[in-house]
Design brief:
This protein is 13% helix and 29% strand. The protein is α+β, with helices and mostly antiparallel strands and 368 residues long.
């Protein structure tokens, strides 16, 4: 289902630009910078220099260390390099710069923290985005993995303009902008300038996770976190850290969880009876359990077995959030056989209803 009507008032209808908080940047240069990155990231470094992309660093067991944006960059000396943008907040992940340096060995690369040189912004809602945000094509694997299929003869999907990245993680996300520290992007003169929380809300409404709250380092698997759908994984490239489990899941696994946007409401309400979103997100901490409750008996009148397992709330803002949920339980909720409940630290309960963003890939019906 698309964004529920009750949430339409939260969607900004005018061109908007917002700063993105808590971002760090590492510079990587040198004659082997592209080769080094290609052996570290779960995506493929573009062959043509100057192209930006989105990916992740994984640890050896296939869990996410950092979700990253990699910006093509030209040094003052005119040599090609990269800027790695990631979440700077303290987490279970090891510090990125020392982590990367451990893998340099004899590679001809230079790593440097340049966080104090750059700010990151997001812009969305402009008419010019419609020129490149064409209808998506998808490839569906039997395991449940879904990949975007980009036009090989067309423009690079993530863009190549200096300091401007097309955010292709989901339809409608807009652009990502990299500017010098303290500067405002050019869009600030033509767009509504809003606080960073508005970008968080924009992401959540579109079902797009980002950073350590939504993709918990050392815990989250990239496919569960929708990084396949968002174009951050390459299942056909050569060896990289964390490849074995990721590729095995693609070929022989069965996906059982997905990260979805959710709406909070009273425990006895539903989306159809909710008149407006909650003014503020319930005070439910990240990583809180979202418990399924059976609400329908079987045909014989006996109560159904209690659903096994729980979901996890990740981040929330203004009555909506992102949650990692078991697909079988989502289906039960959609069919009216169950409902999700979460509680705050005082024990007050809230209903939690997931929805599928309107950009979510739909598998074509197969003819018999």
């Amino acid at each position: 289902m698309p964004i529920p009507p009750v949430l339409r008032s939260l969607v900004r209808s005018t061109p908007t630009v917002a700063p993105i908080a808590n971002r760090a940047v590492v510079s990587i240069t040198g004659s082997q910078a592209a080769e080094f990155l290609n052996g570290m990231t779960a995506g493929t470094v573009p062959r043509q220099s100057g192209n930006h992309f989105y990916s992740a660093f994984l640890h050896a067991q296939g869990r996410v260390i950092h979700d990253i944006f990699i910006w093509a960059h030209t040094t003052p000396a005119g040599r090609p390099g990269f800027l790695i943008e990631y979440d700077a907040r303290p987490s279970e992940a090891p510090p990125l710069l020392p982590l990367l340096k451990r893998f340099v060995l004899r590679s001809k690369v230079k790593l440097q923290d340049v966080t104090e040189e750059y700010d990151v912004w997001a812009a969305w809602g402009s008419e010019k985005e419609k020129a490149w945000e064409t209808e998506r094509q998808w490839e569906f694997a039997r395991s449940g993995v879904i990949e975007p299929v980009w036009d090989k003869d067309g423009e690079w999907p993530w863009g190549s303009a200096p300091g401007v990245m097309r955010d292709r993680r989901a339809v409608g996300m807009g652009h990502r902008l990299l500017v010098r520290k303290g500067d405002r992007p050019q869009e600030a003169s033509t767009h509504d300038v809003v606080p960073a929380d508005e970008y968080h809300l924009h992401r959540v409404l579109h079902g797009v996770p980002e950073g350590s709250d939504d993709i918990p380092p050392m815990q989250a698997f990239p496919i569960d976190s929708n990084m396949d759908i968002m174009g951050g994984l390459d299942f056909r490239k050569g060896c990289y850290v964390g490849q074995e489990l990721t590729v095995r899941t693609y070929h022989t696994g069965q996906l059982r969880k997905r990260l979805l946007p959710v709406v909070f409401h009273g425990p006895d309400q539903s989306l159809s009876t909710l008149e407006k979103p909650l003014e503020q997100s319930p005070p439910i901490p990240p990583q809180s359990d979202i418990r399924p409750h059976a609400i329908q008996s079987d045909e014989a009148g006996a109560p159904r077995p209690r659903p096994r397992g729980t979901g996890k709330l990740l981040s929330s803002v203004r009555g909506v959030g992102l949650a990692l949920l078991r697909l079988e339980q989502v289906e039960a909720v959609e069919q009216g056989r169950a409902k999700f409940i979460a509680a705050n630290v005082q024990g007050q309960e809230y209903g939690v209803t997931p929805y599928w963003p309107d950009w979510w890939p739909q598998q074509p019906e197969q003819s018999e």
